[in-house]
Amino acid sequence: MKMSRLFLETLRDFPADAECTSHKFLVRAGYIRKLTNGIYNYLPLMWRVLKKVENITREEMDKAGAQEILMPFLQPKELWEESGRWGAYGKELMRVKDRHGKEMCLGPTHEEIVTFVAREGVRSYKQLPLNLYQIQSKFRDEIRPRFGLLRGREFIMKDAYSFDRDVAGMEKSYKIMADAYTRIFERCGLETKPVQSDSGAIGGNVSHEYMVITQTDSGEDNVFYCDDCDYAANSNHAISTLPEAVTTGERYKAEKVATPNTGSIKELAEFLKIPESIICKCLVYIADKEPVLVLIRGDKTVEETKLMNALGAKEEIRTASDAEIAELMDKHGFDARPGFIGPKGFDDVRIIADNTVKDLKNFVMAVNENDVHVVGANFGVDVDMPKEFADLRLVEAGEFCPQCGKPLKVTRGIEVGNIFQLGTKYSVPMGATFTDEDGSEKPFVMGCYGIGISRTAAAAVERHHDEHGIKWPIAIAPYHVTIIPVNIQDETQMKIAEEIYEKLQKEGIEVLIDDRDDRAGVKFKDADLIGIPLRITAGKTVQEGLVEYKVRETGEVTKKTPDEAVKTVVETVKAALNK
Ligand code: ATP
Ligand code: MG
Question: Measured between alpha carbons, how far is 200 from 179 in angstroms, rounded to an integer?
């Protein structure tokens, strides 16, 4: 491709609204242009990258025995009502009405549709196992679309769905997909960590997220992992063991003490000169419109996804507003500010406690009186033992690995893929069944498997760049090599550059030639910004029969004859693609 003809405009500056590296570089280097919030045009270079990520994904899915189909973006509300998700999916679902007033949505994911496809098309166990996948745009009205392609409202996803006779079959299909995922990301030049995760709106029990580890601010999720074993989990799923709860061992008889102006745990601990870990923290949440009291050890934090799952909340979970708290207190005849709310006297309110609360002894708690706490409290004596316990705690680095007991570490990550064992979550409510060998009708046991194609491409930029621009891995670079004739008025330079261009194209290499009548500095700057992995420069040294060969990743520069340069490019690209 001749750069003079390429539809490309690089910018001098980063876009003002870009918060992360991939967003900044993809806009500045002319890969994407924003249409509106969270929605982008993919320009020629970007589209080439996306097609490469798609093709790697497609090849590995095909190899793993999955079959490609294409389902509609537009989905009827009725199917979403069958699965129960029309209400549950919430505001992220892009809902539209047709001219007859019939409600539909733009697919954020396709469980309902693919279950319909299997319900219509699969009759017998003999047709199983089956894995259907597609690659297409998805729509989610994200509350905070940001980070360019990392979190868009329209984005490209590969989604696959497996259908099996039984749980053992589903587990086998899941393993096949897990292995395919590792290969897909490896081939894209991305090291990923599969981590245990929460199943969220998709449903099911077992699920893993494939995380690209990045310390940059674009990593939205915390991943807890162990260096000594293979344990790794997302913050909404991670568990850990703690050192013993700290107890005072002093006051065995509870007494009320004045604690003026100690609205926060920190202030309370400082005032009483006690560790935060002997405070029983009491928080007011609203779960699906109902107030809930949540108890947790004072030095720990509630993980809201865990809380939502433990409560079985369907729609939302959030901390109560001051007004809601005041109303709750009023209703129970108390007059206490946040910070002084305790678990006593709320007989008709659901109370759930984190497991850390079980071990508390002689603890400090609020008792619904302003500027007062009880110290030396014990369950069964001063307050009833909560009826419901669950793991609600956000894990922190340094706590112990649940598998091997070594300290856990934490890092930031970007979720590029997600696989789920769905079981019969969709097939049962939607009545999607097959006839088994013994003649009985059984629901499909399903799995679902997503990869964010556009997010993967952006994650690759997060991982591979320097201050000058992108450093694409060869397998997903828009072009493998760029040739720069330094001065296009110089006939020898142009002739050699064009000969190399022809030869490389014949070898099946994807080549750019920068034949723009621009200063050398501009061309070099653009080359670094755009991030083509290999570069050949035909400059003054062509007089001695030499060109310059540069590797973007390492910055290494060597002088070669044109034929040597061609040979090196061909070998390097072939080696990278055959990995
Ligand atoms: P997240 O937690 O980041 O919102 P998710 O868990 O809701 O994502 P899934 O339903 O698991 O997403 O979708 C499968 C894959 O699609 C994700 O692993 C991710 O790579 C990609 N993806 C999801 N939402 C977006 C988005 N808004 N923009 C770009 N890619 C996305
Ligand atoms: Mg996910």
Answer: 23
Q: How far is the CA of 380 from the centre of ligand 2 (A)?
A: 42
Report the percent of the chain where pLDDT is more than 70: 96
Nearest ligand to the CA of 210 is: 1
pLDDT digits (tens, 9 = 90+) for 69-83: 999 999 999 999 999
| For the CA of 416, the nearest ligand | 1
pLDDT at position 246 over 70? no
- 15-193+419-463 maps to which CATH number? 3.30.930.10
Rounded CA separation 298/112 (Å): 43
pLDDT, tens digit, 9 for 90 and up, residues 349-359? 999 999 999 98
Mutation to probe ligand 1, out of 455, 456, 462 (largest number of atoms < 8 A from CB) = 455
Cis peptide leading into residue 129 (ω within 30°): yes
pLDDT at 288 over 60: yes
Could you say which ligand is closest to the alpha carbon of residue 181? 1
H-only helix segments in 137-240 = 167-187
The residue nearest atom 4 of ligand 1, judged by CA position, is 151
- CB within 8 A of 285, min separation 6: which ones? 291, 292, 293, 294, 307, 317, 318, 319, 320
**pTM as predicted:** 0.86
Parse the chain into domains and list their residue ranges.
15-193+419-463, 255-390, 479-577
Q: How many CB atoms lie within 10 A of CB 125?
A: 18
In CATH, what number does 479-577 get? 3.40.50.800
Residue whose CA is at the smallest distance from ligand 1 atom 26 = 151
For 357, phi and psi rounded to 5 degrees? -70, -30
Report whether residue 135 contacts ligand 1, using a CB cutoff of 6 Å.
Answer: no
Q: How many residues does the chain have?
A: 579
CA distances from 413 to 192, 215, 220, 237, 553 (A): 9, 7, 6, 14, 22
Task: Report the DSSP pairing between strands 409-423 and 445-452.
Answer: antiparallel
Give residue 249's pLDDT: 57
DSSP 510: -
CA of 105 to the centre of ligand 1 (A): 18
| Cβ-proximal residues to 356 (8 Å cutoff; 6+ apart), any chain | 242, 245, 296, 297, 300, 393
Judge if the beta carbon of residue 450 lies within 6 A of ligand 1: yes
* Model pLDDT, residue 254: 86
Q: Which of the four CATH numbers 3.90.950.20, 3.80.10.10, 1.25.40.10, 3.90.960.10 does domain 255-390 have?
A: 3.90.960.10
